[in-house]
Design goal:
Layout lengths: L1 H22 L14 E6 L3 H7 L9 E6 L5 H8 L5 H4 L2 E5 L2 H7 L3 H4 L2 E4 H5 L9 H14 L4 E9 L9 H4 L14 H19 L1 E4 L3 H9 L1 H25 L2 E6 L5 E5 L7 E4 L7 H4 E9 L3 H18 L9
Parallel strand pairs: 1-5, 1-7, 3-4, 3-5, 6-9
Antiparallel strand pairs: 2-10, 7-10, 8-9
Helix pairs in contact: 1-10, 3-5, 8-12, 8-14, 11-12
């Protein structure tokens, strides 16, 4: 175990040195420090594709721009942003989270960092597809709001990250069925070393970098770039449907953003022909670190917001009364 930790430290320092030399320092924005009442995070959402579709869902958005994330993976985002500068702010925030990787990155500190931590993935992980469906994160957020209407929230959806919830893309999901399920049992030190080995293997054998999604999905994306982008956009649309509902229910200033983007074969830099797929850490290319920043103002009273949230929860309870439903 000591050897693994030492190797992990060496891995971290070497990779930092290499990426800084290639890209320079990443001067990304810590979105947690900005002014908002509720923050919606769409996992692995690149800004250019978000820009193509967001106006269909948020025509009255008050502000949109692309910002630079300080990270190109969730692990990196959490380690850089959940820092001492935001500790005081986080203690008054409810965190509704569908991504198990965050638990593995921060550990048991999450319950101490936030006013309340709600790991949606523990109860609503769908093993058949390997994700938390956006509707479950949505309803968990509504329940949290109903119980604590005076608190700010961070609501972390797992989409548009692979796998793809639209059944039209089941054939792509089947290429890496166990990949996301393994995230439930993530071991950071071992994973870092395995990740490095995986990246080097792909680089030497196939000539591209791949991380954050299964090897076979990277290979599929390499051969069928238009199909993988189509699946990704469908995943984004699926989560925007629920993000829109939240902006209509919650009151105040709601910001929609992402932890990092997603690469579909963009070159590592102008000097090489190496292409990048998925979202390897510390890769400062635009497809990975340019993320959306969308502001939506919902100027309704807290009483009206609570009424709307209750109406949605009652509606879903009626619909699902014949089955397992969402736990209350």
């Amino acid at each position: 175990m000591i050897v693994i930790k030492i190797l992990d430290i060496v891995y971290d320092k070497v990779l930092n040195a290499i990426t800084t030399m290639l890209f320079g320092p990443n001067e990304g924005v810590n979105v947690l420090t900005l002014n908002w009442d509720h923050l919606i995070v769409l996992d692995a959402c690149r800004c250019d594709i978000f820009k193509q579709v967001y106006s269909d869902f948020f025509p009255s958005a008050t502000r949109f721009k692309c910002i630079l994330s300080p990270a190109s993976s969730t692990m990196e985002f959490v380690r850089k942003n959940f820092n001492d500068t935001v500790v005081k702010k986080l203690r008054d925030i409810i965190f509704v989270n569908s991504n198990p990787v965050i638990d593995h990155a921060v550990g048991g500190k999450l319950e101490k960092l936030f006013y309340k931590y709600i790991p949606v993935w523990r109860n609503y992980w769908d093993n058949d597809i390997g994700t938390v469906k956006p509707e479950n994160t949505f309803y968990a957020a509504l329940r949290a709001y109903m119980r604590n209407p005076n608190k700010k929230m961070i609501i972390w959806f797992l989409q548009p990250h692979y796998p793809y919830v639209d059944k039209r893309f089941d054939q792509i999901n089947k290429l890496g069925m166990d990949f996301m399920n393994k995230a439930l049992h993530h071991d950071a030190p071992n994973s870092n070393l395995l990740m490095l080995a995986k990246i080097m293997k792909n680089l030497l054998m196939r000539g591209y970098l791949c991380a954050g999604i299964p090897n076979k999905v990277c290979e599929y994306a390499h051969q069928n770039p238009s199909e993988i982008i189509k699946a990704y956009i469908a995943n984004l649309v699926s989560v925007l449907h629920y993000a829109k509902k939240l902006t209509e229910i919650l009151s105040g200033k709601i910001v929609i953003t992402s932890d990092h983007g997603e690469a579909f074969g963009e070159p590592l830099n102008k000097l090489t022909f190496i292409r990048v797929y998925g979202h390897p850490s510390r890769m400062c290319i635009s497809s990975l670190i340019q993320v959306p920043y969308l502001e939506v103002e919902n100027n309704i009273s807290r009483h009206e917001a609570i009424r709307k949230a209750l109406r949605y929860l009652v509606h879903i309870s009626i619909i699902q009364s014949g089955g397992r439903g969402i736990q209350q």
